[in-house]
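Holo model, iron/sulfur cluster. Inputs:
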Amino acid sequence: MREILIISGKGGTGKTSLTAAFAHLADNKIICDLDVDTPDLHLLLQPRHERVMEFHAGNEAQIEQDGCTGCGTCEEMCRFNAISQRDGVYSVDTLRCEGCKVCVAFCPEQTILFPEKYCGTWYRSSTRFGTMVHAQLFPGEENSGRLVTLLRQEARKIALENNIDLILSDGAPGVGCPVISSLSGAHCAVLVTEPTPSGRHDLERVATLCDHFRIRAGVIINKADINPDEARIIEQYCREKDYPLLAQLPHDPVITEAMVKARAVTELGETEIGKSIRQAWKKIEQFAG
Ligand code: SF4
Ligand code: SF4
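Output:
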């Protein structure tokens, strides 16, 4: 089974617009949005939820008031200042609780519960391009890497059950935990960059990460014509590092038009940018093997 991951190292490169177009063009695939903190592929694909599942990870303290004698030990012991007292009632600030379990261990009345934390929701959905798995982590929650792993497992399971041999994943921006969880074991990565110094810098970081995990990486320079000099520097970098340059796409307002219409750009009839993206997808398919 092939798993093609589209990543960018930074936000705003047009990665999600391109992923939506590739989802339109690819045959027989599962679509996966692995940006669980700020997902946006659903805005273009408008999924219909078929399964909605809670995502639980880590634990948090919860004081059962009935058993609490108000001794204050938990407040003293919590080094994250997550426990406070008001009018004699002790409570836990869940945003501060780090789940260290110290208060649970030291409460003389054993009245602090330690349930699993409800951190977000994940979905199995249908879209006009096929099945999609995606999620939304609640604001401020951690464990994004675990949620990404869960989504990938679910995507593989659905693919195996339905004889599908391609998973097309839209990765998170940056090089943090969710991107690392997306990369390990992926078939290949497509790195979408833009011709600016910061785009190049972020491309280098994410490309280094791919090398670390021994994931083959190809590059797309999006909006290449807005800064031809920078585009040439990136081209040179790809040559030196042996990253195939899969496409250089021009800036085209049709991309924005597609976003406003909640469509993949390749759905808007015969356009120049649509033609270039189709060629890029053919190259990606060859690259993925
Ligand atoms: S340590 Fe236990 S009994 Fe004491 S204030 Fe905290 S919750 Fe209440
Ligand atoms: S689990 Fe740890 S961080 Fe959370 S309230 Fe208890 S002592 Fe504080």
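The two ends are 11 Å apart (CA to CA). The chain has two domains: 2-57+120-288, 61-114.
Archived with the compound record.
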